[in-house]
Amino acid sequence: MTDASFTVAALYRFARLSHYEALREPLAKFCCRQGIKGTLLLAAEGINGTVAGSTEAIEQLIARIESEPELEGLELKYSYADEMPFHRMKVKLKKEIVTMGVPEVDPLKSVGTYVAPKDWNGLISSSDTVVIDTRNDYEVAIGTFRGALDPQTKTFREFPTWFEENREQLEGKKIAMFCTGGIRCEKATAFVKGLGFDEVYHLKGGILKYLEDVPSGESRWNGECFVFDERVSVGHGLQEGEIELCRACRHPITPQERLSQFYQEGVSCSHCYHQRSDEDRARYAERQRQVLLAEQHGRKRHIGD
């Protein structure tokens, strides 16, 4: 149990969802009626998203989604927040629920072997296992598993090219991949299996499930895990972390980076200072002034979502 006000549900399921377009409006209306906020993505290959609301509202939403026969058995991860971590509710129609850009990849046909969090340490500790972080570079920068390869991708679309370019050094190895909630690495394993690799594994439930289930004293995770909401990051036990977002460029920034001469709350950080003009920073400074005034008058922050 938790005293937190909001339940956060990260969910996905690959499915043959030919009627996905017809689900958009009913799901959006359902969420708005229940006070749920966040994002749901719908595509012919299934559903993906993260939403937050009261525990009762989230339970009702999950039941509503799983009432669609194709979506029964969602992959679900729950966490909690003291404040609503999203500003609005969005239900979007997409070509892919996680964008890789390789149309022939089909996780419903073939994926890697799921590995439970309790068994993950044993797999990645093996000398013949290559551990690959399938997330983007800004996510990896704030936390990853010890010894994991960082493809240094800006988007998931770059992952297939990176793997092809590094294929020779990966041949003959066990390939173990992971991501935040499991969806990216599930699709990545489908891609890698399609290239002829046999021993391909992925962390079931992703980093979030690992941080929830594995005690910190036994963990091989270093740092925090980036999440796509206003909590920004979580650590072991899915407790909210210390990472914040630069409101100018939305890059995650550590407490150490906030000591930089280039950091000014709401205006700039070391990642964006030299990519922005003085005019940009003046505009951001005015926005930040308005945010602070709103907070002084009891209105919630509402920028950069």
From TrEMBL:
Residues that span the membrane, as ranges: none
Enzyme class: oxidoreductase
Molecular-function GO terms, alphabetical: oxidoreductase activity, acting on paired donors, with incorporation or reduction of molecular oxygen
Reaction catalyzed: uridine(34) in tRNA + AH2 + O2 = 5-hydroxyuridine(34) in tRNA + A + H2O
Top-rank lineage group of the source organism: Bacteria
Gene3D superfamilies hit by this protein: 3.30.70.100, Rhodanese-like domain
InterPro entries, per database record: Rhodanese-like_dom, Rhodanese-like_dom_sf, TrhO, TRHO_N
Keywords from the UniProt entry: Oxidoreductase, tRNA processing
EC number(s) recorded for this UniProt protein: 1.14.-.-
GO biological process: tRNA modification
Keyword Zinc: no
Record has NAD as a keyword: no
Residues covered by the Rhodanese domain: 125-219
The protein's role, per its UniProt record: Catalyzes oxygen-dependent 5-hydroxyuridine (ho5U) modification at position 34 in tRNAs.
PANTHER family in UniProt: RHODANESE-LIKE DOMAIN-CONTAINING PROTEIN 7-RELATED (PTHR43268:SF3), THIOSULFATE SULFURTRANSFERASE/RHODANESE-LIKE DOMAIN-CONTAINING PROTEIN 2 (PTHR43268)
Family per similarity comment: Belongs to the TrhO family.
Protein name per the record: tRNA uridine(34) hydroxylase
Organism annotation: Phyllobacterium phragmitis
Gene name of this polypeptide: trhO
